[in-house]
Design a protein that fits this description.
The complex is a heterodimer of chains A (about 240) and B (about 260). Chain A has about 240 residues and is α+β, with helices and mostly antiparallel strands. Chain A has one domain: 2-Layer Sandwich (Ribosomal Protein S5, domain 2). Chain A contains four helices and nine strands; from the N terminus they run E-E-E-E-H-E-H-E-E-H-E-E-H. In chain A, strand 8 and strand 9 form a beta hairpin. The chains are: A alpha+beta (about 240), B alpha+beta (about 260).
Chain lengths: ~240, ~260
């Protein structure tokens, strides 16, 4: 039987996220951009567009295209340097991140165009896809793309039998006699719609539904930091 | 939206401005943009820095890996610089394998550091013929506003000097435990890219200026004013008179850039 996880390695409450720093408008060349740091994971996101689509045959006259690209810098992982460039993992994360953001966009407003979202991570410590989505959401709003809501994202899960919010790298690999379940989630706070849902590990359906509820509370907190970042950039301009 | 097309017609106008010694951003021909360097921007790297020069912003991460030395240099570690031009940094950069621009930037930064003998490669040897440290320097612009070679080099040197060697336990690197041994550079080569547009010569080009350059010459200058690497680029040539001006400019300007290194 697994050892009980009663105290988190970093002293957080079970439903508490790591400290968050969110900033909007950090990359000057981009139409919209953001910096999102949660614990020791740092994501930059830049939005270019809506802009013309190349190759042109990909243009859709009825609606715009969203393209998301997730990339870890070569030195951003623990341990040895990773070879730069896209791998299978990065491509899959790009895909699910795109699907996580789509539900809040009304791409029919942007026919024949593409909205490119580039997510770059200089430093990671678990939860990088969620940090990327959270950053991308701020960047899309910063670019003035019409959105129904923000898309906050966080990984929840089980360490041993204990439900936890925002797993750290240490919690993802806690040790031999403890199993971890890792469930990255993105959601639309206003509707409660879940737009990213993946899982690694083994647990039962009741536990999954329970931690999804924990994720919702955490996402409301994250959404507030996202909006605060945008307010900080734009509050001065309205005066 | 498309800034590029507006620019291509404006070259003559730009040359007029440079001739009058008031560039589009208000600088003089020999004026560098102010630089700031922030260290420790990536704790997963063994050394890191973010360098900002005007609107150009570059993240540099240094990674140490244990590996086998080259057979012709059994007692020397290795150094490799890689620049990645990612689409996050500028609207005209596309995703894909390293472009020829990125490869040239990587190689010119690499050459400046390598040829100056700055890196004590013998100090990277752990067991001759068997095990050495391999130093990878990743130079990643996150906002591209020109002069990536000069700014990237300065950032690379800054990050290298703040790189701590991981502990070696049973022949394996323990990246969680860093020793107090920092990588040492015996020299500080600082490249200055001297640009030519029409008959005008200037330094530290913005992206907008780079798009209209006729030629450029990157001159890496050491702290004793010796020169340790050269790279000429662009479709036009330099006259002897222009080369003389270029070398003088590079030597003078390299001192200004070197001051930013801690």
């Amino acid at each position: 039987m697994a050892e009980k996880y009663t105290k988190r390695f970093d002293g957080r409450k079970m439903n508490e996220t790591r400290p968050i720093v969110a900033k909007a408008g950090v990359i000057k060349n981009a139409d919209g951009s953001a910096y999102f740091k949660i614990g020791d994971t740092i994501a930059y996101a830049a939005v270019y567009g809506p802009r013309e689509v190349f190759p042109r045959f990909m243009q859709n006259p009825t609606k715009g295209i969203l393209r998301v690209n997730y990339n870890m810098m070569a030195f951003s992982g623990p341990g040895e340097r990773n070879r730069p460039g896209p791998n299978r993992r990065a491509k899959e994360i790009s895909l699910v991140s795109e699907k996580a953001l789509l539900p809040v966009l009304d791409l029919e407003k942007y026919p024949n165009t593409v909205i490119d979202v580039y997510i770059e991570l200089p430093q990671t410590d678990a939860g990088s896809r969620c940090a990327g989505i959270s950053a991308a959401s701020i960047a899309l709003a910063d670019a003035g793309v019409e959105m129904k809501d923000m898309v906050p994202a966080v990984a929840v899960g089980m360490v041993g039998d204990t439900p936890v919010v925002d797993l750290s790298y240490h919690e993802e690999q806690p040790g031999d006699d403890m199993e971890t379940v890792d469930i990255p989630i993105a959601m639309v706070p206003s509707t409660g719609e879940v737009t990213l849902l993946q899982m690694d590990g083994i647990t039962n359906k009741d536990s999954i539904l329970k931690v999804i509820e924990l994720a919702k509370d955490a996402c409301v907190v994250i959404a507030e930091t996202q909006r605060a970042a945008l307010r900080e950039k734009y509050a001065g301009e309205s005066k | 939206m498309n800034k590029e097309s507006q620019m291509s017609n404006g070259k003559e106008h730009m040359i007029k401005a440079i001739t009058a010694d008031i560039r589009y951003d208000g600088r003089k021909k020999d004026e560098l943009r102010p630089v700031s360097i922030e260290y420790g921007v990536s704790t997963t790297a063994d050394g890191s820095a973010k360098i900002t020069c005007g609107n150009t912003e570059i993240i540099v991460g240094v990674s140490l890996t244990l590996g086998t030395p080259y057979s012709d240099r059994p007692d020397e570690g290795t150094l490799m610089v890689s620049c990645e031009l990612l689409p996050i940094a500028h609207p005209t950069i596309e995703s894909g394998p390293p472009s020829i621009n990125a490869i040239e930037i990587s190689r010119v930064i690499d050459r400046g550091i390598r040829e100056s003998g700055a890196m004590d490669v013998k100090g990277l040897c752990i067991e001759p013929g068997v095990k050495v440290w391999m130093v990878s320097v990743d130079v990643i612009p996150i906002n591209h506003d020109g002069n990536l070679i000069d700014i990237g080099s300065l950032g690379a040197i800054a990050a290298i000097t703040k790189t701590l060697m991981p502990k070696i336990e049973d022949g394996v690197a323990n990246y969680k435990e860093k020793t107090k041994n920092a990588l040492k550079l015996q020299h500080t080569p600082v490249p200055i890219t001297v640009c030519k547009m029409g008959d005008q010569i200037f330094v530290d080009p913005t992206k907008e200026e780079e798009q209209n350059l006729d030629a450029r010459l990157t001159i890496a200058v050491m702290e004793d004013d010796n020169i340790c690497s050269l790279q000429k680029g662009g479709g036009a040539g330099f006259t002897s008179e222009e080369l003389k001006i270029a070398f003088e400019l590079a030597v003078a300007k390299s001192k200004e850039f070197r001051k930013y290194l801690a």
